[in-house]
Design goal:
The chain has 298 residues and is mainly beta. 7% of the residues lie in helices and 40% in strands. The protein is built from four helices and 15 strands. Strands 10-11-12-13-14-15 form a six-stranded antiparallel β-sheet, with no helix packed on it.
């Protein structure tokens, strides 16, 4: 299923538009790739999110600065309210983005160039992301727009997380603190993808960017175990996998493994009967210790 991008104000008629060989130490960093399907990691199927506070149906509306800026006023804008946890008032999100395919559980937002929050009891008014600001600042990772994500309908966050195709939901409890965070796909290749993450801070009522999560290769979040699994193909015949957890607000690597298919890290043939070579680290206290380095049978 490939979302078909439509550049429009939601609920307003519009016309379609085009969419926009050494040991590897932990953790694995994210980089889009054109490699084959990654090797599976433990618990590859994500567990349903622990909370599903729901969202309003997206509706159009100009951002505050759009009223004074004709170009901004003509840009696609999607407003949506979303409660970050059960029992609290929703936050008011404003996305500047194209609208892709719409399902009964939500819709795809494509080419997100701006994300902001309006002032509510739970969230402070602030800009989370603005592609134009990044371009002007000449940031190395500046993009014309983030690739996008799936905006769920009320009560459909769990169903959205279970979708097997297309970009993942825009909301996930990435640090397991009971509040939903923002996760937006930044770019994707044939097999790997990268995302940007902003963690919600209840004390400041703001979303703060997490570069710790962004260096992980295609992370998957398991709320019951409070673990984050990551992994995929790092390039060539090399695959990486790892697990991580939050310790006093910092992301720590529990274990990481690099697998070389069909040869040693130096490119030498494997002994007869062995199909891969593994290098594995595990956390021992506050340091990572190598616990395995050699050929292995699958």
């Amino acid at each position: 299923m490939t979302p078909r991008s439509v550049a429009c104000l939601v609920a307003v008629s519009c016309s379609p538009a085009a969419a926009p060989s050494a040991e590897v130490a932990p953790p694995a960093t994210a980089a889009p790739s054109v490699a084959p399907t990654p090797a599976p990691t433990p618990e590859a199927a994500p567990a349903p999110p622990a909370i599903d506070a729901g969202s309003d149906a997206a509706e159009p509306g100009p951002t505050p600065e759009a009223a004074a800026d004709p170009e901004a006023a003509s840009a696609p804008v999607v407003r949506a309210s979303f409660a970050l946890r059960a029992g609290v008032a929703p936050c008011q999100f404003v996305f500047r983005a194209g609208v892709g395919s719409t399902l009964d559980i939500g819709r795809y937002l494509m080419a997100i160039s701006r994300i902001e929050l309006l002032a509510t009891d739970v969230c402070a008014a602030h800009v989370v992301y603005d592609a134009e600001v990044e371009r002007k600042a000449a940031l190395a990772e500046a993009l014309d727009a983030l690739q996008g994500g799936f905006l769920p309908n009320p009560g459909k966050l769990g169903a959205a997380a279970a979708l097997g195709e297309g970009p993942p939901p825009l909301f996930v409890d990435a640090n397991f603190d009971g509040y939903l965070d923002l996760a937006v796909e930044a770019m994707s290749g044939a097999y790997n993808s990268s995302s940007r993450y902003w963690l919600f801070e209840p004390s400041t009522k703001r979303f703060v960017r997490s570069t710790e999560l962004e260096v992980l290769l295609m992370p998957r979040f398991f709320a019951k175990r409070k673990r984050i699994a990551a992994g995929g193909r790092a390039g060539g015949n090399v695959y990486v996998s790892s697990e991580h957890e939050w310790v006093k607000g910092k992301l720590e690597t529990v274990w990481s493994q690099t697998t070389y298919l069909g040869e040693t890290p130096q490119g030498q043939p494997l002994p007869r009967g062995f199909r891969e070579y593994r290098v594995r680290y595990e956390r021992r206290g506050t340091t990572q210790k190598k616990v395995f380095d050699g050929p292995a049978r699958r």
